[in-house]
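User: Structure please.
Assistant: Input sequence and predicted structure:
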Amino acid sequence: MPPTDADLDQARRAYAERLRVAARLKSNALVEALARVPREKFLGPGPWQIVDVAVPTGLKYRATPDADPKHVYADVLIAIDASRSLNNGQPSGLASWIDALELRSGERVIHIGCGTGYYTAILAEIVGPTGRVIAIDIDAELAQRAGQNLADYSRVEVWYGDDFPFPPDSADAVFVNAGATHPLPKWLNALVLEGRMLIPLTATGPEGFGSGGMFLLRRTRAGFTAGCLSGVAIYPCIGARDAGLNLDLRMRHGTERQVHSFRRDAHEPDGTCWLHTPYGCFSTLFLGST
């Protein structure tokens, strides 16, 4: 027998509560969003391909036994397109990063690299009917799927491409959901005072994936605080990668916790520059000690 709505509600609630514990989530609104949003809606029809193991040559998948949606309510990576090793991100990791954004009802969020929209829907649930979410993906197929999947969310707008206008002071939070070597100035300028940005800084290898650290930046009157939340392995962010910085990040792998601020003032590189870029500097200095 196919699962009833009550069965799925129960599976989602149990999944959300497991993630609350596993990811040490502080936001009740995030947990409630995880308990409400139907993950299967954003994955396509089952059975689904679940990442079984990561090997040097890529990812290996195993199929769920059937198309029962209860299989997707686990802390696992699930393929969106297994041929490209493109997956719906691991819930505990994404949830912990979203939790760090400290989103509130009514806030405005920009989600870059939205994929098919599952985590965009989570963001939209958190900010509520008075909030707004702009979802962007450079992949036309993914953006189209996200638009269809998010059609019921009037507060969500989906864009295809990388030319979305980012008005200054227009966002309370920016979530870059793909690996960059640096933040783009237009992303930083979009943040309001006390606005937050999640950005994975990654070095890519021949296999195309990138690894590095997930950073949280916060705009203050004195400048940007910055710190590494955790490690990350993620697809690259087209348009936000620099070959030279990619090499620099590869050499700095494992030292991400040294970063305490992001400087936009002009200065010569010195020993406090963890990653000095033409777009700004990730610095070991605490804000105010420049």
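The CA atoms of residues 61 and 172 lie 37 Å apart.
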